[in-house]
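Our collaborator T.R. sent over the components below with a one-line note: 'Predict the complex.' Nothing else. No constraints on interfaces, no templates requested, no preferences about which chain binds where. So this is a plain run: every listed entity goes in together, and whatever single assembly comes back becomes the starting point for the next discussion.
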Amino acid sequence: MKKIMVLLLVVVFVFGSILTVVAQDTVDKKVKITEKLNKLQNTSEAKGTPNFITGHLSENAINNDSDALAGGFTAAGIEISTDTYEPNGSMTDAYGLTNGLAYSSYIFYRSDEDYYYFNTKGAGTILVTLTNLPSNYDLYLLNSDGTAVAKSQNGSTSDESIYFQTDLPDKFYIKVVGYGAYSTTQPYELKVIFPDPQWYYEFVNEELEQDDYNNSIYSYTYEKLGAQSVDVHISIIQPYYGDILYIRDLDNNIVATYEYDMLKYVGMDGIWASVGNCSIRVELVRSNTSPVCDYYIDQVGYYLTYPLF
Ligand SMILES: [Ca+2]
Ligand SMILES: [Ca+2]
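Returned assembly:
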């Protein structure tokens, strides 16, 4: 019995020692971990922000990385920026331009290049302007083969412009480059005017008003400087017996006359009147002055190789 008691005591003692050692070991580990954490914290505090990027990558490497990243996202069709008309980094992806409109866009990262295109419909002058530059960007005009037919490479943030005479209808491309310069905040402005002769129309709401100097003459003049021809549409509410409409050109020559016998059948279909220069005057001569407007100009148009804004 005594032997058993002694054995038990020995067992309890040994087991207790083991527990003490294990417990001490755990405490030691905890202390070490805390020390390590403190060290790490002190190190990062001493260095400020963790500079694992600037400390190990050159500026070029970072730029190349951001280029690759931006290019990769763009190629994958994922929009990661506020850049406009992207992707337009090649002739194949070029963005189509409307004659005479201004476009705002960005060279958004170092290797960004922007392509645009337009189609000419005849011989004439192409005018391309690139303005509001944040850096030294340059401008190129390419033909449908991709050959640069004109370029503008002014220094610093000077505006770029190209005048180019074309003989035949063709598809042209514009290329904007920054050669490493870029801006994500200041957009450049691009505008092109190219040969595309056609009628351009505008809606108006003009009464044929009584002329101050003559009680019986009502008139309206539409002028579009530079236009090859202009025309107006006259809607007729109520013609009176004796009314006569005259159409005059820039030189005040009468190019058409409409008398009552004709006017009474026109009605709301109205009349399109046209002259071969930039100014048209519609003149209504009435036998009786009327307080009510019976003739309206509701549409005007001009013929030119490019639209005027
Ligand atoms: Ca761009
Ligand atoms: Ca330049």
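Summary for T.R.: The longest strand covers residues 198-207.
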